[in-house]
Amino acid sequence: MEQPVTLSENWQAFVEKCKNCHACALADSRQHVVIWRGGVRAPLIILGEGPGADEDRQGIPFVGRSGRLLDLLLTSCGFKPEDYHICNIVKCRPPGNRVPTREEAAACRPLLKEQLLFVRPAVYLLMGATAFRYFTGSEEGISRARGIWTVSNKCHIMPTFHPAYVLRDPSKKIYLWKDMASVRQKLEELDLVQPLQRPS
Ligand code: SF4
Question: Is residue 105 in some structural domain?
Answer without folding.
Answer: yes
